[in-house]
Structure formats: structure tokens, C-alpha cells
């Protein structure tokens, strides 16, 4: 049986993880694109320049693409830039409830758990051993870091990152483009564009909306 084909945008460390998930799922990687291919973490004959600054140079037609870029605003910018179909990558050891939904371009890494009735947006990264409780909503381009835990009915806004080992208690809403620091415990809602750290979590800074 002929393998499914996919192109990868991104050639750094995160790309290696995504690449192995795709290959284990029976995909053939036909090309790997990057803005700076000379800085790639791995060598491949299929590496080609991405030319993000010039839409006309990117081969939009062809095999579908997955964006293997860890930085949320970069991933969002690239997704808005590309005019092609996208695929997701879900590790075989991830546990996904039947009633959970995952939109296109999302990556779910080894040991992650997504519980019933949760909704995961486009181009989201659910990292190693992260846990998404029941009835959660995770917005487009968000990142739930390794071993972070969202309890039930949590909402994470577009582009936000929940740091390594952080815990978000039930029914808390995290706004758009927020950063929750590693190990933080979030016990109340977090406004858009906030940086929160500590236990209990406190907002220490407000950032500007990213240009994407």
C-alpha cells in the first residue's frame, strides 16, 4: 500500500519529534522546509528553503503540510501564510477520548491525554505527558507544555502557552496569547496578553499583542 505523503515546515528540534510521529503513523516526508535551512538540527536531502518573506516562492500546491515549529506566534504566522492543506500528528501512545475533537495541524506528543468533550483548535501543540481534562477548550496555536495539567472546563485562549508542569484548576479561563510559567498553579482567570508565574499564580506583566 502506498504511503501517505506530507511536507514538514520547520527543521529544528521540535521537527524531529513531529517527523518520527508521522513516520510511525505511516507517512512519507517528501520535503522539509525552513526559513533558515542552514541552521537545521538534522541533515536531509529533502530540505528546502521556506521563503516565508515571499508567498510566490512557496510551492503551495502538492502534498499537505504540517507546521513543526514550537514558537506559537511563528506557528500562527506560518499557518496564515501557507495556502495548502494541513495534517495533524498524534503519537500512538496519546490517549484521546472518542468525544474529544482535534482540529487540523495539531500535534499531540507521546503520553498526552485529552479527555471527553474537549475541543482542541488548529495548529495546537499538546506536549509530552500533558493532560487536558474533560470539557476543556484549547484555542488555535496554543501550547500545553510537558506534564502541564488542565482540570475540567478550563479554557485556554488563542496562542497561549501553559508551561511545563503547570496546573490550571477547574473552570479557569486563560486569555489570548498568555504565558503561564513552569510549575505555576492557576486559580483564577487570566486576562489576555498576560504573563503569570508562581503558586498561587500571579500576573507579573502584560505584553503586546503579537503581529501575525
TrEMBL record:
It comes from the Bacteria. GO terms for molecular function: transferase activity. InterPro entries: AcTrfase_PglD-like, Hexapep, PglD_N, Trans_hexapeptide_repeat, Trimer_LpxA-like_sf. Gene3D superfamilies: 3.40.50.20, Hexapeptide repeat proteins (2.160.10.10). The keyword Cell cycle does not apply. The record marks 135 as: Increases basicity of active site His. The keyword Transferase applies. Pfam families: Hexapep (PF00132), PglD_N (PF17836). SUPFAM superfamilies: Trimeric LpxA-like enzymes. Residues 5-80 form the PglD N-terminal domain. The active site is at residue 134. Substrate binds at residues 34-35, 70. Keywords: Transferase. Acetyl-CoA binds at residue 143. Belongs to the transferase hexapeptide repeat family. NCBIfam families: NeuD_NnaD. This is Acetyltransferase. The lineage of its organism: Bacteria, Pseudomonadati, Bacteroidota, Flavobacteriia, Flavobacteriales.
Amino acid at each position: 500500500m502506498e504511503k501517505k505523503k506530507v511536507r514538514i515546515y520547520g527543521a529544528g528540534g521540535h521537527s524531529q519529534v513531529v517527523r518520527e510521529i508521522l513516520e510511525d503513523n505511516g507517512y512519507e516526508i517528501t520535503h522539509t522546509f525552513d526559513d533558515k535551512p542552514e541552521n537545521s538540527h538534522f541533515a536531509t536531502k529533502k530540505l528546502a528553503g521556506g521563503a516565508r518573506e515571499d508567498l510566490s516562492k512557496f510551492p503551495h500546491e502538492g502534498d499537505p503540510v504540517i507546521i513543526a515549529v514550537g514558537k506559537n506566534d511563528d506557528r500562527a504566522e506560518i499557518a496564515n501564510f501557507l495556502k495548502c492543506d494541513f495534517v495533524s500528528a498524534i503519537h500512538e501512545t496519546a490517549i484521546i477520548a472518542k468525544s474529544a475533537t482535534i482540529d487540523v495541524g495539531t500535534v499531540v506528543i507521546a503520553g498526552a491525554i485529552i479527555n471527553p468533550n474537549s475541543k482542541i483548535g488548529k495548529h495546537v501543540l499538546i506536549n509530552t505527558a500533558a493532560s487536558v481534562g474533560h470539557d476543556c477548550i484549547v484555542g488555535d496555536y496554543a501550547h500545553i507544555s510537558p506534564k502541564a495539567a488542565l482540570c475540567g472546563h478550563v479554557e485556554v485562549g488563542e496562542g497561549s502557552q501553559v508551561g511545563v508542569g503547570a496546573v490550571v484548576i477547574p473552570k479557569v479561563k486563560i486569555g489570548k496569547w498568555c504565558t503561564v510559567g513552569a510549575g505555576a498553579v492557576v486559580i483564577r482567570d487570566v486576562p489576555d496578553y498576560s504573563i503569570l508565574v508562581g503558586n498561587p499564580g500571579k500576573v507579573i506583566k502584560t505584553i503586546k499583542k503579537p503581529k501575525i
